[in-house]
Amino acid sequence: MQIVKDHGPITGEHIAEKLNLTRATLRPDLAILTMAGYLEARPRVGYFYTGKTGTQLLADKIRKIKVSDYQSIPVVIHENMSVYDAIVTMFLEDVGTLFVVDEESLLVGVLSRKDLLRASIGKQELTSIPVNIIMTRMPNITFCEKDDLLIDVAQKLIEKQIDAMPVVKKVDKGYEVIGRITKTNMTKVLVALAKEDVL
């Protein structure tokens, strides 16, 4: 890298000469440095140093990750389900957020732990109250699409102080739920980055 910093742009042959190596011996090392983003290669010009630090290269990687790379399976319930059944579903599925759909399987609401807790504090009969009474409704639902950048979705989770977001696909009459992004998904990304499993 120092040779490229000092003499770049420089061809692979010239780097090999300076190190008294063959071009073939050097090829895997140059490929790794190029893939990692420390060097760039241009045909008929040679290699040059990008000047990027490890932190900048990591930030570049993070900015390329899409929602579709880490989304998980959504837990969807019907808007007529009772609050009691929604609580049971949340426990059985071990999730913190349920996505509520209508007769046409379109997103109409989101139900969080807080919503269910708030409903269960009163003296209402939970088996007779439908979730559509207590859910957060459109247009107040924050959602994302599979091609959105994960870093932008993470920013929304922080700003809105929510634990999960539905991943939706636009259809004629509204939005179909195709996935979810949660704080747990974000933690998985962090672990994958630390293990260098990303990109």
Automatic annotation (TrEMBL):
UniProt-listed Pfam families: CBS, HTH_11
Record keyword Lipoprotein present: no
Keywords on record: CBS domain, Repeat
Residue intervals of the CBS domain: 70-128, 135-198
Presence of keyword Repeat: yes
Membrane spanning stretches: none
InterPro entries: CBS_dom, CBS_dom_sf, CBS_domain-containing, HTH_11, UCP026546_HTH-CBS, WH-like_DNA-bd_sf, WH_DNA-bd_sf
Protein name, as recorded: CBS domain-containing protein
Protein's organism: Anoxybacillus mongoliensis
